[in-house]
């Protein structure tokens, strides 16, 4: 597929006149950062909140201009009103509070009452990162820990669906949000705060503000572990997380295909660069267990992630089979660790959770843990 060029998008947008018919969207500085995910292009146009409804045709014109570019499969264009909060805009995250003065040993302020914060990340989308994050969180809970799950994938929040949760979180004191709860874990997601169909686009500072809010203005405590489902790739959200809170470590989810591993390596390198220990790699969709005959097929040349982990000197945390029942339970909001806690798949996730638990506890009290390499 032809990759989409940011400059080509901007060139198209220079053909779209500004809200008052003068200049163009680009020369007036109204276009946000442009996010390109595969064939999907997302950006926002900054407008006066009071005129958001009247400027709908402008939004449509901009979307149509970009949609016409080769390689563009879909566009998500929204009008945002940066200061006043516009009718057409998603509820803008409240400005982040100034960081509290107390800092941890790493120099970053922790979250009071929350033990370890771990990030579950992947180099690219669609590898099963969210499914893995949810089941790891439930596995940690099954191992007796108090667990929270923060869906930091603000571009495509999936935790509400995966946990079968809907509705809006309540506020406790007009400011702090009460996390939602499912299967004994606490959860927070942008998906609870905006309508599912609301197209969202985030500028760098908005990403930071939204994530900071979900970390610091949610009543998480008391928690032993907060599992953060990161957006795929290496962008603003990853940097925000690494900069804002002391991460105990990152878990990288990868499929066995080489391509995914190349992406996973990028994720790994990024966490290392920002001094976040990599707790290990999980190989998802590792092998296929036939539901009829019980036979096992290594359809994606299974084992790639284990070798790669060895080569890169990071622990290998385990392999999760490609199995219809994982997909079905996950998509139905009944994750397998909760819905079939005694089955073989739940055991796989619980074992991975045990290794993670051991790694964040420094290996104490657990069975032989993989090597933990902290650069
Ligand atoms: P990501 O967060 O990486 O985008 P998801 O967790 O949303 O990926 O998973 C993508 C799709 O793959 C979902 O439909 C999910 O149910 C399915 N899936 C994830 N892991 C597995 C697995 N081990 N076996 C079968 N289906 C899986």
Keywords for this entry:
three-stranded mixed beta sheet, binds adenosine-5'-diphosphate, nine-stranded mixed beta sheet, disordered C terminus, 12 helices, 375 residues, Rossmann fold
The topology string of helices and strands comes to HEEHEEHEHEEHHEHEHEEHEHHH
Q: If you average the pLDDT, what whole number results?
A: 80
Number of strands: 12
Q: Report the CATH C-level class of the largest domain.
A: Alpha Beta
- Counting H and I runs of at least 4 residues, what is the number of helices? 12
Folded structure, characterized:
Helix 8 links the parallel strand 9 and strand 10. The chain has two domains: 75 residues, 2-Layer Sandwich (GMP Synthetase, Chain A, domain 3); 251 residues, Rossmann fold, CATH 3.40.50.300. Helix content is 31%, strand content 19%. The chain is globular, with a radius of gyration of 21 Å. It contains twelve helices and twelve strands. The structure holds adenosine-5'-diphosphate (ADP). Adenosine-5'-diphosphate binds next to helix 3, strand 10, strand 12 and helix 10.
SSE order and pairing:
Elements: H1 6-13, E1 35-37, E2 40-46, H2 56-67, E3 74-80, E4 114-121, H3 129-142, E5 147-151, H4 159-162, E6 180-182, E7 185-189, H5 190-193, H6 204-216, E8 223-229, H7 236-244, E9 249-254, H8 258-273, E10 278-289, E11 296-297, H9 304-312, E12 316-322, H10 324-331, H11 336-339, H12 344-360
This protein binds adenosine-5'-diphosphate.
Adenosine-5'-diphosphate binds next to helix 3, strand 10, strand 12 and helix 10.
């Amino acid at each position: 597929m032809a990759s989409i060029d940011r400059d080509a998008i901007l060139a198209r947008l220079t053909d779209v006149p500004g809200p008052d018919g003068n200049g163009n969207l680009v020369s007036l500085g109204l276009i946000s950062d442009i996010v390109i995910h595969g064939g999907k292009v997302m950006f926002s146009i900054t407008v006066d909140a009071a005129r958001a409804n009247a400027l709908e045709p402008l939004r449509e014109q901009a979307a149509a201009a970009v949609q016409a570019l080769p390689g563009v499969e879909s566009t998500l264009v929204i009008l945002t009103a940066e200061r006043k909060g516009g009718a057409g805009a998603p509820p803008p995250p409240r400005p982040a509070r100034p960081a509290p003065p107390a800092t941890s040993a790493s120099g970053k302020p922790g979250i009071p009452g929350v033990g370890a914060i771990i990030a579950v990340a992947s180099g690219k989308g669609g590898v099963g990162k969210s499914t893995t994050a949810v089941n790891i969180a439930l596995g940690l809970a099954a191992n007796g820990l108090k667990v929270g799950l923060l869906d930091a994938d603000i571009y495509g929040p999936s935790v509400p669906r995966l946990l079968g949760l809907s509705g809006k979180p309540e506020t406790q004191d007009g400011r702090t949000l009460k996390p939602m709860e499912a299967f004994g874990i606490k959860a927070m997601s942008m998906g609870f705060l905006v309508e599912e169909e609301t197209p969202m686009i985030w500028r760098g500072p908005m990403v930071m503000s939204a994530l900071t809010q979900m970390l610091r203005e949610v009543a998480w405590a008391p928690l032993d572990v907060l599992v953060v489902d990161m957006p795929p790739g290496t962008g603003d959200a990853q940097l925000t997380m690494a900069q804002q809170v002391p991460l105990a470590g990152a878990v990288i989810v990868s499929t066995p295909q080489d391509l995914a591993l190349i992406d996973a390596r990028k994720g790994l390198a990024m966490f290392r660069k920002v001094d976040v220990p990599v707790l290990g790699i999980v190989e998802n969709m590792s092998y296929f267990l036939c539901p009829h005959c019980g036979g096992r097929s290594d359809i994606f040349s299974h084992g790639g992630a284990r070798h790669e982990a060895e080569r890169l000197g990071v622990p290998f945390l385990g392999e999760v089979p490609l199995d219809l029942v994982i997909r079905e339970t996950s998509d139905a909001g009944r994750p397998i660790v909760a819905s079939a806690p005694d089955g073989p798949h739940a055991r796989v996730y619980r074992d991975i959770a045990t290794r993670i638990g051991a790694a964040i506890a420094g290996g104490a009290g657990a069975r032989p843990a993989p090597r933990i390499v902290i650069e």
